[in-house]
Amino acid sequence: MENVKKILKLLPGFNCGACGYKRCDTFAEDILKGKSVNDCPFLLKEEFKGNLQKINDIKGSLKETPKVPLCSSGKLKGLLDGYEADFLLDPLPKEHSCRETLIILSKTPIKMGDHIKYRPLACPIPHFAEIIGESHGMYVVHLEGPCNRFSDSKKEYKEVGIALIAAFEGIYRGKPPEVGKTVKFIPTHCMMQKVHSGVVVEVEGNRVLIEGIDLKVW
C-alpha cells in the first residue's frame, strides 16, 4: 500500500476517468498489477513526464508478481473437485478476504459489526464472518475462519444456521471476466479451494462483482 500511495501522489489526481477508472486511486492500485501507466493521457504531457518516469521506476523496483498456478490445460484447477476455473478471486485492497453477500434464513437478530457463524448452502464447512454491510435484507461479510475460529474464545459468534451466498466481490487474478458472462472462479480464502460459478455483473479494472453464486459447476 505504501507504493500505491507513492504512485497516487505522482498521478494528476483529476479523477477524470480517461484511463478507464473512475478514480485515480483505483488506477494506482492496478498499475502495480501490470496496468500500463500510459493509459493516463495526462502523464504523456510534458508537464508530467517526470512523474511518468518515477512511476515506472517504482514498478521496476518491485519483485515480479507470482504467476497463477495452472493445470495442464492452461487453466486453474480446483483442489477439491478438479474442475477448471477462469480465475482466482483475491480480496479488495486493504481487506483480508473477498466480500460475500449473504441471504440469511435465520430470524436471529443481527446487525453491522456482529460476528456470525453460518454454513453456506451446499458447503459442508461452517464459516465465521464479520458483518460489514446490510441492504434490503442481505448482509455483506468478511470471512474470519473457519480453521482459526473453532478454538477462538475472544469473540462471540452468533449462530445463524444456513445462508445463501448471493454474491462475491474481489480482485480477479487470471482470465479477464466479461460483464454478463457466466464464470468459474476460486475464492482464495476458500478452505477447500473449490470452484464456484456465477454471473459477472460489474467489472472495474481488476475489481469484479459476481452474483448468482452456485457451488454446482456444469
UniProtKB/TrEMBL annotation:
<dbReference type="InterPro" id="IPR051069">
    <property type="entry name" value="ACDS_complex_subunit"/>
</dbReference>
<feature type="domain" description="4Fe-4S">
    <location>
        <begin position="1"/>
        <end position="57"/>
    </location>
</feature>
<keyword id="KW-0408">Iron</keyword>
<protein>
    <submittedName>
        <fullName>Fe-S cluster domain protein</fullName>
    </submittedName>
</protein>
<keyword id="KW-0004">4Fe-4S</keyword>
<dbReference type="GO" id="GO:0046872">
    <property type="term" value="F:metal ion binding"/>
</dbReference>
<dbReference type="InterPro" id="IPR007202">
    <property type="entry name" value="4Fe-4S_dom"/>
</dbReference>
<dbReference type="Pfam" id="PF04060">
    <property type="entry name" value="FeS"/>
</dbReference>
<keyword id="KW-0411">Iron-sulfur</keyword>
<keyword id="KW-0479">Metal-binding</keyword>
<dbReference type="GO" id="GO:0051539">
    <property type="term" value="F:4 iron, 4 sulfur cluster binding"/>
</dbReference>
